[in-house]
Amino acid sequence: MSKVIMTSSEMDKALSRIAFEILERNSDNCEVCLIGIQRRGVNIAKILRNKLTKLIKTEKTEIKAVNMGILDITFYRDDLSLIAEYPVMNGTDINFPIDKKNIILVDDVLYTGRTIRAAIDGIFEYGRPSSVSLAVLVDRGHRELPFKADFIGKDVPTSKDEIIKVMIKELDGKNQVEII
Known about the structure:
Blueprint: E1 3-6, H1 8-25, E2 31-37, H2 40-58, E3 65-71, H3 80-83, E4 102-110, H4 114-124, E5 131-139, E6 151-155, E7 164-167, H5 169-172, E8 176-179
Parallel strand pairs: 2-3, 2-4, 4-5, 5-6
Antiparallel strand pairs: 1-8, 7-8
Protein backbone atom coordinates (compact mmCIF):
# COMPACT_ATOMS: atom_id res chain seq x y z
CA MET A 1 0.00 0.00 0.00
CA SER A 2 1.47 3.35 -0.99
CA LYS A 3 0.71 6.85 0.23
CA VAL A 4 1.60 10.12 -1.52
CA ILE A 5 3.79 12.18 0.79
CA MET A 6 4.74 14.90 -1.72
CA THR A 7 2.63 16.07 -4.63
CA SER A 8 4.08 17.68 -7.74
CA SER A 9 3.31 21.11 -6.28
CA GLU A 10 4.94 20.26 -2.95
CA MET A 11 8.03 18.94 -4.77
CA ASP A 12 8.24 22.17 -6.75
CA LYS A 13 7.96 24.31 -3.60
CA ALA A 14 10.61 22.24 -1.80
CA LEU A 15 13.02 22.49 -4.74
CA SER A 16 12.39 26.25 -5.04
CA ARG A 17 13.25 26.63 -1.35
CA ILE A 18 16.40 24.52 -1.77
CA ALA A 19 17.47 26.65 -4.75
CA PHE A 20 16.99 29.83 -2.72
CA GLU A 21 18.99 28.35 0.20
CA ILE A 22 21.79 27.35 -2.18
CA LEU A 23 21.86 30.90 -3.55
CA GLU A 24 21.97 32.38 -0.03
CA ARG A 25 24.80 30.14 1.14
CA ASN A 26 26.87 30.60 -2.02
CA SER A 27 26.43 34.32 -2.65
CA ASP A 28 30.15 35.03 -2.39
CA ASN A 29 31.16 32.41 -4.96
CA CYS A 30 31.40 33.08 -8.68
CA GLU A 31 29.83 29.77 -9.72
CA VAL A 32 27.67 27.04 -8.26
CA CYS A 33 28.59 23.48 -9.21
CA LEU A 34 25.79 20.93 -8.96
CA ILE A 35 26.55 17.25 -9.47
CA GLY A 36 23.52 15.00 -9.81
CA ILE A 37 23.89 11.39 -8.71
CA GLN A 38 22.55 8.98 -11.33
CA ARG A 39 19.60 8.46 -11.76
CA ARG A 40 16.96 10.66 -10.18
CA GLY A 41 19.51 12.97 -8.61
CA VAL A 42 20.38 14.09 -12.14
CA ASN A 43 16.80 15.15 -12.87
CA ILE A 44 16.54 16.95 -9.54
CA ALA A 45 19.86 18.73 -10.24
CA LYS A 46 18.47 19.89 -13.61
CA ILE A 47 15.40 21.33 -11.90
CA LEU A 48 17.60 23.06 -9.31
CA ARG A 49 19.86 24.43 -12.03
CA ASN A 50 16.86 25.96 -13.84
CA LYS A 51 15.54 27.46 -10.61
CA LEU A 52 18.98 28.84 -9.68
CA THR A 53 19.47 30.33 -13.14
CA LYS A 54 16.13 32.17 -12.83
CA LEU A 55 16.99 33.38 -9.32
CA ILE A 56 20.40 34.64 -10.45
CA LYS A 57 18.71 36.78 -13.11
CA THR A 58 16.33 38.37 -10.59
CA GLU A 59 18.47 38.61 -7.42
CA LYS A 60 21.59 40.66 -6.76
CA THR A 61 24.26 38.01 -6.51
CA GLU A 62 27.92 37.35 -7.15
CA ILE A 63 27.05 34.01 -8.78
CA LYS A 64 27.61 34.15 -12.52
CA ALA A 65 27.10 30.55 -13.61
CA VAL A 66 25.59 27.25 -12.53
CA ASN A 67 27.70 24.33 -13.68
CA MET A 68 26.09 20.93 -13.66
CA GLY A 69 27.63 17.49 -13.86
CA ILE A 70 26.40 13.92 -13.71
CA LEU A 71 27.99 11.23 -11.53
CA ASP A 72 27.47 7.48 -11.81
CA ILE A 73 28.56 5.92 -8.51
CA THR A 74 28.19 2.28 -9.57
CA PHE A 75 31.87 1.33 -9.34
CA TYR A 76 32.43 3.32 -6.14
CA ARG A 77 29.81 1.38 -4.17
CA ASP A 78 30.92 -0.86 -1.31
CA ASP A 79 28.07 -3.28 -2.06
CA LEU A 80 28.58 -3.66 -5.83
CA SER A 81 28.80 -7.45 -5.63
CA LEU A 82 25.46 -7.56 -3.79
CA ILE A 83 23.56 -5.43 -6.33
CA ALA A 84 23.90 -7.36 -9.57
CA GLU A 85 26.27 -9.62 -11.46
CA TYR A 86 26.26 -7.13 -14.36
CA PRO A 87 25.53 -3.66 -12.97
CA VAL A 88 24.00 -1.07 -15.28
CA MET A 89 26.14 1.99 -15.93
CA ASN A 90 24.34 5.27 -16.60
CA GLY A 91 27.43 7.37 -17.25
CA THR A 92 29.36 10.22 -15.67
CA ASP A 93 29.69 13.64 -17.29
CA ILE A 94 31.63 16.27 -15.35
CA ASN A 95 32.99 18.64 -18.00
CA PHE A 96 34.25 21.43 -15.74
CA PRO A 97 37.19 21.56 -13.34
CA ILE A 98 36.17 20.86 -9.74
CA ASP A 99 39.44 21.85 -8.07
CA LYS A 100 38.88 24.57 -5.46
CA LYS A 101 35.13 24.67 -6.25
CA ASN A 102 32.20 24.32 -3.87
CA ILE A 103 30.38 21.22 -5.09
CA ILE A 104 26.77 20.47 -4.26
CA LEU A 105 25.89 16.79 -4.63
CA VAL A 106 22.23 16.27 -5.51
CA ASP A 107 20.25 13.09 -4.85
CA ASP A 108 16.62 12.09 -4.43
CA VAL A 109 16.66 10.26 -1.08
CA LEU A 110 19.19 10.20 1.75
CA TYR A 111 19.01 6.93 3.65
CA THR A 112 22.06 5.03 4.97
CA GLY A 113 24.68 7.42 3.58
CA ARG A 114 26.42 4.75 1.49
CA THR A 115 25.45 6.40 -1.81
CA ILE A 116 26.93 9.68 -0.59
CA ARG A 117 30.16 7.98 0.50
CA ALA A 118 30.46 6.47 -2.98
CA ALA A 119 29.70 9.82 -4.61
CA ILE A 120 32.41 11.57 -2.60
CA ASP A 121 34.89 8.88 -3.66
CA GLY A 122 33.82 9.47 -7.27
CA ILE A 123 34.15 13.26 -7.04
CA PHE A 124 37.69 13.05 -5.71
CA GLU A 125 38.65 11.08 -8.82
CA TYR A 126 38.03 14.35 -10.71
CA GLY A 127 39.92 16.72 -8.44
CA ARG A 128 39.99 18.33 -5.04
CA PRO A 129 37.02 20.60 -4.37
CA SER A 130 37.08 23.27 -1.66
CA SER A 131 33.92 21.83 -0.17
CA VAL A 132 31.18 19.30 -0.81
CA SER A 133 27.57 19.95 0.26
CA LEU A 134 24.55 17.70 -0.10
CA ALA A 135 21.06 18.54 -1.38
CA VAL A 136 18.33 15.89 -1.20
CA LEU A 137 14.62 15.93 -1.90
CA VAL A 138 13.85 13.51 0.98
CA ASP A 139 15.81 12.59 4.11
CA ARG A 140 14.36 9.39 5.57
CA GLY A 141 16.87 8.80 8.38
CA HIS A 142 18.51 5.48 9.34
CA ARG A 143 22.09 6.60 8.68
CA GLU A 144 24.84 3.99 8.78
CA LEU A 145 27.52 6.54 7.94
CA PRO A 146 27.97 10.04 9.42
CA PHE A 147 26.45 12.16 6.64
CA LYS A 148 23.92 14.95 6.98
CA ALA A 149 22.25 16.84 4.14
CA ASP A 150 22.84 20.59 3.93
CA PHE A 151 19.69 21.21 1.87
CA ILE A 152 16.59 19.07 2.49
CA GLY A 153 13.23 19.20 0.73
CA LYS A 154 11.41 17.11 3.34
CA ASP A 155 12.30 15.02 6.38
CA VAL A 156 10.26 11.81 6.39
CA PRO A 157 10.68 9.52 9.40
CA THR A 158 10.40 5.94 8.16
CA SER A 159 10.82 2.41 9.37
CA LYS A 160 13.48 0.31 7.71
CA ASP A 161 10.71 -1.75 6.11
CA GLU A 162 9.26 1.23 4.27
CA ILE A 163 10.40 2.45 0.85
CA ILE A 164 10.47 6.03 -0.42
CA LYS A 165 9.68 6.17 -4.12
CA VAL A 166 10.53 9.42 -5.90
CA MET A 167 8.87 9.79 -9.28
CA ILE A 168 10.16 12.27 -11.83
CA LYS A 169 8.09 13.30 -14.83
CA GLU A 170 10.86 12.62 -17.38
CA LEU A 171 11.35 9.08 -16.06
CA ASP A 172 8.01 8.11 -14.53
CA GLY A 173 5.41 10.32 -16.20
CA LYS A 174 4.69 12.40 -13.08
CA ASN A 175 6.34 14.25 -10.21
CA GLN A 176 5.41 12.71 -6.88
CA VAL A 177 6.91 11.06 -3.80
CA GLU A 178 5.30 8.01 -2.23
CA ILE A 179 5.97 5.96 0.87
CA ILE A 180 5.38 2.24 0.46
